[in-house]
Amino acid sequence: MKFSFSIFLIIGIVLIGCKPTAVYKDISFTKNNAGKEVKLNIFTPKKTDRKYPVLIFVHGGNWNTGNKNTYNLMGKNFARKNIIAVIPDYTLSPNADVDQMTKEVAAAIQFAKENAQKYSGDSQNIFVSGHSAGGQLAASAVMNPKYQIPENTVSGIILIDAAGIDMKNYLEKNPPTSESNYDVTWSKDPQKWKEASPIYFINEKTPPFLIYVGEKTYPSIKVANENFLEALRPFQPNVKPVFINKKHIPMVVQYFFPWSKRFDETLEFIKTSEN
Question: 219: part of which helix (H) or strand (E)?
């Protein structure tokens, strides 16, 4: 019985998500500190008769694991919803610290902006998103002026159970060690923790947010998102988190299914946030 259900589920995914898309893989967009090319994948609708909004999605993985290719199905699903998805890799710890990772994510955003028209994208409607560690990297790249993303480049930010958005607060209570390479990722300098925490860069120019939080996620992520929302509300009083009855990993896995409500919510957010 379980086998039969799995077969029907797979057939359902194929049939529901059969709208054609185009995929451009392993496009080099920058080099890391070691001179190695960093690459991204782009997923677009097949039709090129209009300009589509562009969404850069940054994967998670605790800053030391993860790969863009894991999210190919997610990229295709966005393309089927008439959203161009750009999914970059970034250099992982211990081969990079969080500053280097954020520089690479910022480079991916700049690449998407500068090359949007080549892929029928609307360069005036660029959005960024990230799950877990990717949420921190995406938000930091946009919000911290150090990374030189020009004002109004990004129309909105979507956080999916984001980790690290108030990392200074977390690391003050849990100093970094060699576990998970945190001593390399974050260093032991509290000033660097602050510079990598998007919560400290919220202001009146911060792009609109759509924030998802798993009801069964890690306590540290719940606390960080609560703190972030409290800091954001004076500037975006109408922002409301969307709580989903899921654990941390299923919060992103839901995007692998084309019938997920998250796609319609994303489209609505894009519609209301477009420049």
Answer: helix 219-232
Over residues 73-116, the pLDDT tens digits come to 999 999 999 999 999 999 999 999 999 999 999 999 999 999 99
Q: Which residue has the higher pLDDT, 31 or 5?
A: 31
The sign of the torsion formed by the CA atoms of 255, 65, 196, 165 equals: positive
Give the separation between CA 109 and CA 4, rounded to whole angstroms.
43
Q: How many helices (H) and strands (E) does the chain have?
A: 10, 8
For residue 65, give the 3-state DSSP assignment: coil
Phi/psi of residue 237, nearest 5 degrees: -60, -20
Instruction: Please answer whether residues 71 and 97 qualify as being in contact, where contact means their C-beta atoms are separated by less than 8 angstroms.
Output: no
Distance between CA atoms of 129 and 135, rounded to whole angstroms? 6
- Indicate whether 273 pLDDT > 50: yes
Strand order from edge to edge, sheet including 84-88: 21-31, 37-45, 84-88, 52-58, 121-131, 154-160, 209-214, 242-244
Q: What is the pTM of this model?
A: 0.93
Q: Where along the chain do its domains lie?
A: 21-273
**CATH 3.40.190.100: does it fit domain 21-273?**
no
Classified as helix, coil or strand, 168 is helix
* Average pLDDT of the segment spanning 9-16: 49
Q: What DSSP element (H or E) covers 27?
A: strand 21-31
Q: pLDDT tens, 213-243?
A: 999 999 999 999 999 999 999 999 999 999 9
Three-state secondary structure call for residue 214: strand
For residue 97 the two structure tokens come to: 């610290």
Asked if the bond preceding 175 is cis, omega within 30° of 0, the reply is no
